[in-house]
Amino acid sequence: MAALIYFCSSFFFLVEVTAVKILVAGKGGVGKTTVSALLAHILADEGYSVLCLDADSVPNLAQSLGVPYEKALEIVPLSRNEDLAEERTGARPGSGWGVIFSLTPKVDDLVDKYGIRIRPNLSLVVVGSIEQPKEGCMCPSIALARAFLTHVLLKERDIVIVDSEAGAEVFGRGLAEKFDIMICVAEPTLKSLMIAKKLLRMGRELNISKLLLVINKVRDTVEASQLYGRVFSDEPIPYCMIRYDENVVKADNSGLGVDSLPRDSTVYQDAMSLAKKILSLKRRSKVG
User: Fold this and answer.
1) Alpha carbon of 120 to those of 45, 60, 66: distances in Å?
2) pTM of the predicted structure, to 2 decimals
3) Model confidence pLDDT, tens digit, residues 234-265
4) Structural domain for 117, as ranges
5) Is 6 inside a domain boundary?
6) Sheet holding 122-126: strands in order across?
7) Are 273 and 12 in contact (CB under 8 A)?
8) Where residue 215 sits, what CATH number does that domain have?
9) Over residues 110-137, mean pLDDT
10) What's the confidence (pLDDT) of residue 272?
11) Residue 129: left if φ>0, alpha if ψ -120 to 50, beta else—which one?
12) How many domains does the chain have?
């Protein structure tokens, strides 16, 4: 089979990468936020400047990164910040149909003003959901959040990790293709892998250049490999496995972030291998 499996290595080295935009997608409960947080801390450990964007409708990346629970509850996502939306777009959300507002608001200062500094080279901006209402209208808050994402993805900076509950289709053609890599996180079950296959297909259709599957919470690597072969035999995708680790559950139940996990733990070592693979994918895309 054409796909490759990557497990942890005993060391990590800094790959020369100037910038990489990573979309982490997957259905709820598969562990994509934990994977996003692990990647952020590992890449920050290696000296990269990392910006995390939480674009989930129920954002909790702050807690996974290590922000105390009480402080995380106080964070207002950009897409729900009505005062900010009114200031930058000229209209307050909920003003009613027919209101005129700017679709290109000023957003270049939002990281500095609303970003949460996790560590000197790791920041978080909680964007919130950027999906438009089913009625098809674009409210000022969503316009602001989308403009901010566009600004960040077009700007050359080291590492940007976007934790999004939906697949790449929520970003639309033109914006989605600004991502260098789409990581789709799935559990080692038939149903979860079939959903991941659909999300990855959407990413390919939207011209994201590199696709990667992460099979998370793996207890039996042989069984997980067999399930992968059953689902992806016609559309092989490179994949990594992150094995189940009770340390993640203990940290979560204690209100701690992934930065509290032992560096020699199974999940941390597997996440290091994933980070190394991501950087090598980006380096090859630059060369080739």
Assistant:
1) 11, 21, 14
2) 0.87
3) 999 999 999 999 999 999 999 999 999 999 99
4) 15-287
5) no
6) 5-6, 239-243, 210-218, 181-186, 20-25, 159-163, 50-54, 122-126, 116-119
7) no
8) 3.40.50.300
9) 82
10) 97
11) beta
12) 1
